[in-house]
Amino acid sequence: MKHLLSTADLSRDEAVLILDTAAQMAATQERAIKKLPTLRGRTVVNLFYEDSTRTRISFETAAKRLSADVINFSAKGSSVSKGESLKDTALTLQAMGADAVVIRHPASGAPHTLATSGWTQGAVLNAGDGTHQHPTQALLDAYTMRCHLVGDSGTAEVTGRDLAGLRVAIVGDVLHSRVARSNVDLLHTLGADVTLVAPPTLLPVGIGPWPCRVSYDLDAVIADERPDAIMMLRVQRERMSNAGGGFFPSAVEYTRRYGLDGRRMARLPDHAIVMHPGPMNRGLEISATAADSPRAVIVEQVANGVAVRMAALYLLLAQETPGSTLQEDAR
């Protein structure tokens, strides 16, 4: 694996390897000294053309926990704001010796262009591109599901396991969600059964070939499919004009039809978990009751993001170094 651009590129074995490696990384983070020397001497650049809190800080933390040198590059306040192209920015970073570039970009396909153009010789990790893909978010979601829903919660119990047989409902603004696309691809690869729930206006054109079912009725999905995990997507109002922009009649109507509240949560199976990629619109797609419930693993998803991104950086960079193994570094 040279780059991490899309969950659609991952085989079942590659995805499971990342999850297994993330479990090992998580175990090292329970120690008093959390740093590993694995990426000492390597340089990781966070190249963010869009605002981000969780993803940027998570990647920065992951790289530093692996002892890499980290350069945070924001489009705001840089030469990008003066019109510098992605190519020229990438060539500048390459000249500075970047071993890996973590890129978030508003244009779908920008990470792929960076990885295949020859502008950088380092690994490219997609931290979200347009409405296309967000692979590490899907991986941390799958890791969280595996921890709670597969076998015992112990690492040894789930090592090598996928998500075969799990039922997952992904609810809300699928149209604008790169998280939904990435999760559908990855969860299908890992054997889970996925249902997308949304109003027709918030589903993308051409969704037919996606490896999932589609429903417009959240209550029916909860009653009939009994999901093991329900993932609420943020309503991306910044991508819609006039708040709703005709995508739904009103916020009140959207919440009534597609919001997760205490009443709907009570009808989920007892073991079901509630997920959200964040940031949340409390009171719109998810109520405070649901977001703050013991069933909600939303904060845990953020914590798991560090372990998953450590795993991705390790697998892309450290294994190129002869003699470097996670087991040796963790001693």
Describe this structure in words.
The chain has a five-stranded parallel beta sheet with strand order 7-6-5-8-9, sandwiched between helices. A four-stranded parallel beta sheet has the order 2-1-3-4, with helices on both faces. 38% of the residues lie in helices and 14% in strands. The protein folds into two domains: 7-133 and 302-329, Rossmann fold; 135-301, Rossmann fold (3-Layer(aba) Sandwich), CATH 3.40.50.1370. It has 331 residues and is an alpha/beta fold.
Quick rundown:
The chain is α/β, with parallel strands linked by helices and 331 residues long.
Task: List strands and helices in order, with pairings.
Blueprint: H1 12-28, E1 43-48, H2 54-65, E2 69-74, H3 86-95, E3 100-105, H4 110-116, E4 123-129, H5 135-149, H6 155-158, E5 167-171, H7 178-189, E6 193-197, E7 213-215, H8 218-225, E8 229-232, H9 251-258, H10 262-266, E9 273-275, H11 288-291, H12 298-317, H13 326-329
Parallel strand pairs: 1-2, 1-3, 3-4, 5-6, 5-8, 6-7, 8-9
